[in-house]
Sulfotransferase family protein (Roseovarius litorisediminis), 229 residues
Amino acid sequence: MTLKVIGAGFGRTGTASLKVALETLLGAPCYHMSEVLGNPGHVDKWLDVAAGNPDWNSIFRNYEATVDFPASTYWRELADAYPEAKVILSVRDAESWFQSTQKTIFSKDLQALYAGTKWGRMIKATIDDHLGGDINDKESAIAAFHAHNARVAEAFTADRLLKFEAKDGWAPLCKLLDLPVPDEAFPHINSKEEFDGVLELLSSPLGTGAMNGDGMATDSAHDDFFDKK
């Protein structure tokens, strides 16, 4: 497999829904932060990326698309590595994005959970250090959000880039990828309540192992993790 779609949008811009939508359209897996935790060794692979030693083919060998952090941090490098891939910039209202992050991916509860773990080091190296400033400071985080989106929007021609909101549904995605519109509702997942389920799982011994790079130890545990996403 090779990447056909590179998601350049920040986490909490509908990336979980976009992951499912792209998997439906492409008939192949889409990478997401959940895959980092689900696959043994992937935390280490992203630490290698942060250290300047990426092995993109190793990370994405079983995927045709990627969305969400940490891959979206490296959108420019991925676009160069996969020049035929389309780029999707998922966006949402900046205020609602910030409020959502504070209850989920940038929450103090999650930060406390991954403190001292290998996953925590990976998040700092691949996300926090690239955003600059304080991810829990509204002005700083929103400024980083706008600056990132502007850089992506300026980097590609219209035939390669799609600026996308989940409310847009199937049509713009299908047009970009030259695929038929599915006869089913566009997915809408990963609410705050669903994220709370993920926190519960990460608090378990299984989650601790995943945060230290072991992935989900069994296929059933891996499936349980994704069901909660």
The two ends are 24 Å apart (CA to CA). Residues 201 and 224 are 9 Å apart (CA to CA). The chain is about 55% helix and 5% strand. Confidence is low (pLDDT under 50) at residues 217-229.
